[in-house]
């Protein structure tokens, strides 16, 4: 349920700051010279060359637009029923993907279910990222007793099964989008916090940090202004992998009956319901399962592209 853990601290630091050797200055036609591209521009160039990842980014952007414009795009309301056409097949009587056992339009429920999935996924990862940045920055930069206490708490959370923790949180908070965001977010910050701490411990020894100290910069200013921007690369990679994990977690909780309250649609609930009518109405399962799989693949491929983009050795491949 958490993001990837195979990023080594030292290597991730190099990924974060990109290639430290500046490209040679290219002479312009006039008296001025064109500066070499910075690490972010080089990373974007490498990402665009990753066709699968770039195509997935376009697909993910389209999903976000569809989710935001759901009331305008969906042909029916997600709770609107057509009692005369229950379990209708795809294309029947204006229902492009068919209807479910209550006569609700599956396409409309998929679109609104996409809104639920993305809201939970992005909200949970923002929550997890905020916790990871606060705890990782404090532990890595301050060190000493603060680091010991914070990392001891992190180890306790790491030992506790994250999915079980999410189940307990949803049970306590109730079945709502807010409860899912909080539950999944709090259950998935640990690995990112460890990564942030490793990045900070490596970067705080760099020359530019020492130079900032010599100019009078202190504490939080150094951590936020000088260290954090150079650690964004690996953090962005882990976050991109954590988003599909959060979508899968939301669907998994829905399969257990702990998703959002009906009639609000959820892909996990639609897949669970469709599996019970697989022989009588296979379209109820196929449509949400295919879209669910494509969405997870798209975000995973985006993560692969970002990982390669922030790897400075990618320029030499």
TrEMBL record:
Keyword set includes Transmembrane helix: yes
Transmembrane regions: 52-74, 117-142, 149-171, 177-196, 235-260, 280-302
BP GO terms, sorted: peptide transport; protein transport; transmembrane transport
Membrane topology, as annotated: Multi-pass membrane protein
Keywords of the record: Cell membrane, Membrane, Peptide transport, Protein transport, Transmembrane, Transmembrane helix, Transport
Similarity-based family: Belongs to the binding-protein-dependent transport system permease family. OppBC subfamily.
UniProt name for this protein: ABC-type dipeptide/oligopeptide/nickel transport system permease subunit
Localization of this protein: Cell membrane
The species this protein was found in: Kribbella italica
Database matches in PANTHER family: OLIGOPEPTIDE TRANSPORT SYSTEM PERMEASE PROTEIN AMID (PTHR43386:SF24), OLIGOPEPTIDE TRANSPORT SYSTEM PERMEASE PROTEIN APPC (PTHR43386)
One GO cellular component term: plasma membrane
Ranges where the ABC transmembrane type-1 domain occurs: 114-303
Protein's UniProt keywords contain Translocase: no
UniProt-listed InterPro entries: BP-dependent_transpt_permease, MetI-like, MetI-like_sf, OppC_N
């Amino acid at each position: 349920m958490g993001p990837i853990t195979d990023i080594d601290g030292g290597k991730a630091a190099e990924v974060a700051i990109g290639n430290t050797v500046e490209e040679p200055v290219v002479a312009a036609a006039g008296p001025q010279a064109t500066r070499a591209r910075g690490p972010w521009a080089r990373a974007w160039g490498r990402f665009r060359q990753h066709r699968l990842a770039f195509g997935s980014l376009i697909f993910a952007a389209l999903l976000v637009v569809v989710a935001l414009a759901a009331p305008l795009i969906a042909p029916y309301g997600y709770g609107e029923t057509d009692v005369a056409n229950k379990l209708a097949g795809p294309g029947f009587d204006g229902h492009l993907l068919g209807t479910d056992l209550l006569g609700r339009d599956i396409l409309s429920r998929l679109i609104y279910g996409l809104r639920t999935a993305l809201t939970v996924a992005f909200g949970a990862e923002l929550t997890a990222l905020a916790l990871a940045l606060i705890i990782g920055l404090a532990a890595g930069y301050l060190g000493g007793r603060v680091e010991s206490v914070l990392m001891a708490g992190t180890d306790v959370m790491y030992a506790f099964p994250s999915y079980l923790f999410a189940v307990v949180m949803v049970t306590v908070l109730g079945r709502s989008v807010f409860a899912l965001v909080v539950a999944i977010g709090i259950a998935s910050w640990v690995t990112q916090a460890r990564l942030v701490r490793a990045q900070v411990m490596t970067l705080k020894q760099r020359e530019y940090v020492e130079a900032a100290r010599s100019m009078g910069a202190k504490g939080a200013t150094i951590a936020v202004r000088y260290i954090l921007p150079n650690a964004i690369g690996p953090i962005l990679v882990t976050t991109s992998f954590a988003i599909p994990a959060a979508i899968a977690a939301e669907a998994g909780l829905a399969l257990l009956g702990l998703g959002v309250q009906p009639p609000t649609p959820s892909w996990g609930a639609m897949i669970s319901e469709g599996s019970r009518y697989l022989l009588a109405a296979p379209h109820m399962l196929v449509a949400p399962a295919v879209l669910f799989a494509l969405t997870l693949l798209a975000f995973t491929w985006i993560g692969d592209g970002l990982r390669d983009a922030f790897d400075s050795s990618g320029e030499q491949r």
